[in-house]
Fold this protein.
Amino acid sequence: MKRDLEALARQKLDLLVIGGGINGAATARDAALGGLKVALVEARDFSSGTSSRSSKLIHGGLRYLEQFDFKLVREARQERRRLQRLAPHLARPVAFLLPIYRGNPFSPAKIRLGLSVYDLLGNLGAEDRHRMISASQASEMMPTLRPDGLRAAAMYHDSGTDDARLTIETVVDAADHGAAVANYAEVRAIASSAGRVTAVEVEDALSGRRFEVAARFFVNAAGPWVDRVRALVKGFDGSRTVRLTKGTHVVVPPVTGKLALLAAVPGEDRIFVMWPWHGGAMLGTTDTDFEGDPAGVAPGQADVDYLLRAANSVFAEPLTNAEVRCPWAGLRALVLDGVNKSPSAVTRESRLHQDPWARNMISICGGKLTTARALGEDVARQVASHLGMRLEGSSRRAPFPGGRTGPFEPFVRRSVEEAEREFHIATGVAERIVRTYGSRWRAVLDPVLGRPELTEPIPGSSASINGHEEGPLLAAEARFAAHEEMAVKTDDFLLRRSGLNWTGTLLQGASEAVKRVLECPGAASTDAAPVRVGS
């Protein structure tokens, strides 16, 4: 995957996708799989916005059943099942415990009914079905729960993911099927004529040069910036299509053990989730309206306090601010669906918007990480229809680049043994690499055979989260990110490609070492100014 804006600008494109988050990446992938000549440009790095700051779950949205949004839940459950087949390294089943306390807005009978519907709408088999358990069983399974007031509980399943890597692999697969892709390529101006977009002016943030890119059709997948892109087209009427809400997450000690937790927020029609993540537990999320520059979104102390109050309503020993690690915040670009609704009540479905002054541009509003593949397939189909073309294929049965593993756990065991034997790396590091890259793990480590120094740990890269050591990153991983996944800055690797994601904010000592690898000849770029890790 090579970054070449000059060559991109010379192409005669059927489709240009603006925005390299999960929705834009999925659209470009399906369009490329279908045989369209497609390009994707992203103003910053792929998945650097919302798509690396989610709850990192592939889920059906259990709470959407209360809103009678059966269509969305069914689609999400089907996509979870599909991802399990096509990207098993990026869709790991997670068992959730749902405790039911006196005063909760839902009863055991209501939970049983809801989870029965959830199962019917799609699960991974008999072991994936829900079951109701007693209060004493719940306390035994999660001893940290507050016992007083606990009526019963339920066990059900969703899946966890690395959202950034899911996005990156989607971009990689689009490129593997012919799409021209470029990060740090911002659309600065849009030319139009007779109500149709003709070309965009793209600025290379690394060199300062500008290029004109023409296409027959355009997809605006800029997420929180979608209306800013619309505003670049002549005739824009100042309207809005999305409502931005902020979601904050933190990492706390592993108080849920090996299980995930979903529970009601006291006094609100909301839930919170916790699930095991990098030796701790991820806790989220808030849902509050956001105004201002999307690039400036950040967690606040009020957000952290809210999450702690929610969690402490179900734990016997309260969590404290001193135990909070790695806070981050992201923005949801929700469909503008009634300003009087609370943020949590706004639909998570997507909507495709076309302006009369830009008839050959579709703007994607809303959507979910879980259903992005299906959204990309639908958008690519609509683009092909507008162009009078027929797609040659789709992503429905196409494995992700790292997804050719077969049954995943046997694959991991076998591959870890091979990595230890052939490349002489520690078991923990080998397992992390295999689980991160799936069937691509050999491509990460093969260069080691000619350059054994690539097995050396990156100084300062052993992240410790709540006493859990992740193990060091290897220089080979940074090299792979630069050569094969278009990483050009230290954050690109540490936060979005290493598999550690936002724990990378703790890896500031690794910045200079990663910079040296990324600036090696033949990497994605050699003129990128390094940025501080976590910035």
